[in-house]
Amino acid sequence: MTSPDSGSGLGALLGRARAALAEVPRESLGRERTSRWRAPRIVRAGSAWHVGVLLLGDDAVFATAEVLRAAAPVRRGYAAESARARAERRAEASRGGFRDGETVHVGWTAIDLDAVEAGGSSGPLALRDGVPSVHWSAAGGYMPLEAYLDERIALLRDGA
């Protein structure tokens, strides 16, 4: 992976973003665990800053996937099977040791920064006309990563 603070390019851009986020709280990363003897659970796998479609760790960048809030399992009736499934996922995080209400990211994938810098793409990042860019929504196109990070970090720092 590209060094997060290398002189110019993607690594330097991400290094500046991490420095700007230093005072912003991180969110938890979780991984699913199963065994024969215990109920499925989501266990702690680190932390990162949640910046839109990206999760910025100390030395890696991940694409977001499922985001949930841990909650202790409770018995209740559900109007829809999807509500029951969401409650079970929250309970899996609680069983894995997350505090009730704690935000947990699950199913995230590592972004290959070297591939992006070489002109390819990885996750939502790509080099477009020599500019690191991010595909920020399914309906949206690519936008320059620097502008995206500036906007998202400003929102996070202002508490929005």
Topology:
Blueprint: H1 10-20, E1 27-33, E2 41-51, E3 54-56, E4 61-63, E5 66-69, H2 81-95, E6 103-106, E7 109-110, H3 113-117, E8 121-122, E9 125-128, E10 131-135, E11 142-144, H4 145-157
Parallel strand pairs: 1-6
Antiparallel strand pairs: 1-2, 2-3, 3-4, 4-7, 5-6, 8-9, 9-10, 10-11
Description:
The protein is an alpha+beta fold. The protein has one domain. The protein is built from 4 helices and 11 strands; from the N terminus they run αβββββαββαββββα. It has helices at residues 10-20, 81-95, 113-117, 145-157; strands at 27-33, 41-51, 54-56, 61-63, 66-69, 103-106, 109-110, 121-122, 125-128, 131-135, 142-144. The strands form 2 sheets. A 7-stranded mixed β-sheet has the order 5-6-1-2-3-4-7. Strands 8-9-10-11 form a 4-stranded antiparallel β-sheet. A hairpin with a 2-residue loop joins β8 (121-122) and β9.
